[in-house]
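Reopening this ticket.

The earlier resolution said the output was attached, but the attachment link was broken on my side. Pasting everything inline this time so it's all in one place.
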Amino acid sequence: MTPRTTPRLDMIGLVVSDMAASLAFYRRLGIDVPAGADSEPHVEASLPGGLRIGWDTEEVVRSFDPSWVRPADGGRVGLAFLCGSPAEVDAVYSELTGAGHTGHLAPWDAFWGQRYAVVLDPDGCEVSLFAPAQPAA
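Inline output:
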């Protein structure tokens, strides 16, 4: 068995009701959000040290997770961990769910070109696992 690399925190994702209002808030905090992004359904910005922050509208999240509903209290922040390969996404998901953590979305090949899965942390926060999809053979 090939040893796997340690997944690393790569992006903090926020689900927003109003993209423009959210981006305005984070711009006020000094995050360099791309100009003209206020009407986009998905926006990303790089943070010092290489970490990224991303915003998705509720509609974007519902496009791949139809069961998602707006939380009454919090629940809009998700952590996304970059894995070394698509197989590693599967392995880490299996390791976490095998340890008793709740799987929310089993690994799948997402339409945006990644192997993707979601596990819930002990407090119910979504932790995404992802890797770039392998090129077609």
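Reporter confirms the inline version is readable. The radius of gyration is 16 Å. The chain is about 20% helix and 35% strand.
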